[in-house]
Specification:
The chain is built from three helices and 13 strands. It has 264 residues and is an alpha+beta fold. The protein has one domain. The relative contact order is 0.21.
Amino acid sequence: MSISIPRLYECRVNHTRISPKKHAFNYRVFMLAIELGSFPHVAFLSKNRFNLFSIDDRDHICTDPKKSIRTNLTAWLADKGTKIPDDARITLLTFPRVLGYSFNPVSFYYIHSKCGEPITAIAEVTNTYREMKLFPLGKPATDGRFDHHIAKEFYVSPFSDPNDAFHFRIGQPSDEWVVHIDNHTDGKPSLLSSVRGNARTLTALRLAWYALKYPLLTLKIIFGIHWHALLLFLKRIPHFSKSTPIREAVLPAGSTTPASSTDH
């Protein structure tokens, strides 16, 4: 299985809360697909320096700020018992910084062998406190997709119990890309989230156009999070404090044990 990168993915994001009260919204964004260790030379896009759009190592797994994302990620995986080949291809799908401002509610790492066979994937979730947790998604099915239940044990939102669980259903980033991340409370789905994207060629012209089509992308995301938090508050949705004690989440039978985290 092979993917062509670098790319842009023009995406529609949907959130549907089904309990304790209904609340739904969707919005359009774009994300970058970049192979770590092979950064594209495209106008308006830089690595670790200011530009219209940029990717910065500090916005992702940062166990050692002097090292690259790839080095930190492979070391983290090895520490969790997963050693990947030195020549493995690692693709990061993420929101870029816009004029130096960054907020990535979720990013994804896809790891393939040199010949393109999927090995594993990791979801990187960040909350509005800039705390981060990595969720390893295990091994793919024969079609390359990932289907994984895992304990959250992480404060993502004041309207989401940190003791809930995630159900990840993650497709490969080909011409189309589909991701489902469902929040489960007491073993039942309570919040359904999805990302559906279509691949676009990464060019300077397209980046310039997307700067107009999706103005201040990352500010739009953080504003939307706070706006809908206000609406949930007005709907009297139960909320959880940052100090909520972590206990064992309820997972479906046969699901994965809790994941380790990395915060910064």
